[in-house]
Design brief:
Length: 309
């Protein structure tokens, strides 16, 4: 029902107005009224609307406090970061200084290694030269095996068994000396290398060299130039002497060129030097004595004398 009854004219229109339109108009009017009431704030609502300003100030204050706290914390964090950064920078500088020292040490070690390498190369060259010299000396002195071309001289006792036709230590010594004079670089008798300490000696009925017994026919091998060694040996006094001896007593004698000869090394025992000590009492008496050297002519005369006897 409406809050007030309309006048006579309005009552007629009100009564004659269809019910559906009346309900619709009243519903719309009520809605507009309610909306209008909501638009007009009451006193309580006005008070409530004024309160948000205070709340805003509180919120702003809190926000300012949070911002200040954040700023302080950020400043502290910045200080920490700056300190950490400085520490890292110091560490980096220390590492760089250490790296520079290591580089300097590496450079010095490299220079030292290069100097030592140069010294080592020089010592290696000297050692190689000394080794070559030692090898050459060993070949020349007979304490190392040698291989090369040369000649072989074969001499044997006479077939009739005469005393003069027997090969003696002197005969082999004459052949060896003649080969040295002819230019031989290495000599061996029956496989025994001739050295400065070697010598052919007579031991009873046998000949010995380097403490090894020799047996006929005796072979004297020499390394040298096959084109000239035999001819030069024949031209020496020793060569002529042995040729005459073999012809006179009928001793088999042959000289031949060999394309490849291998002469063994002398026994290593010959490298051990031995000597006799001299007592002090005997020094005075022995000091006046002088060694005498026998020449080939003396040996030859003795040998010829023995053969004649």
């Amino acid at each position: 029902m409406p809050e007030q009854i309309p006048g006579s004219e309005d009552l007629r229109a009100y009564v004659t107005k269809p019910l559906l339109d009346r309900i619709t108009d009243q519903a719309i009017d009520s809605d507009y009224k309610a909306a209008a009431e909501r638009r007009e704030p009451s006193e309580e609502e006005s008070t409530r609307r004024r309160r948000p300003g205070l709340w805003a100030m509180v919120v702003v204050g809190l926000f300012a406090l949070l911002a200040t706290t954040a700023a302080v914390q950020t400043s502290r964090n910045e200080d920490v970061r700056q300190t950490s950064r400085q520490v890292l920078v110091d560490r980096i500088e220390q590492r760089q200084d250490r790296i520079a020292e290591l580089h300097q040490e590496i450079s010095e070690l490299g220079e030292g290694n290069q100097s030592r390498e140069t010294t080592l190369n020089a010592l290696g060259q000297r050692a190689e030269a000394a080794s070559s010299t030692a090898a050459a000396t060993a070949e020349e002195t007979g304490f190392a095996p040698v291989t090369g071309s040369g000649i072989r001289i074969t001499i044997d006792n006479a077939a009739d068994g005469s005393e003069g036709g027997t090969v003696r230590d002197y005969d082999l010594a004459v052949i060896v000396n003649g080969l040295w004079q002819a230019g031989a670089t290495a000599v061996a008798v029956d496989g025994q290398r001739v050295t400065p300490r070697s010598g052919v000696i007579t031991s009873g009925a046998a000949l010995r060299m380097n403490d090894v017994s020799l047996s006929p026919p005796y072979e004297v091998s020499a390394i040298g130039d096959t084109r000239t060694l035999a001819a030069r040996f024949a031209e020496t006094v020793s060569g002529a002497m042995i040729h005459t001896t073999t012809q006179d007593y009928g001793m088999p004698y042959k000289v031949e060129n060999i394309d490849r000869l291998t002469l063994p090394a002398a026994p290593p025992d010959l490298l051990e030097l031995t000597h006799l000590g001299i007592d002090r009492e005997d020094k005075g008496s022995k000091a006046s004595e002088k060694p005498t050297a026998k020449t080939d002519e003396d040996k030859q005369e003795k040998s010829e004398g023995d053969r004649e006897e």
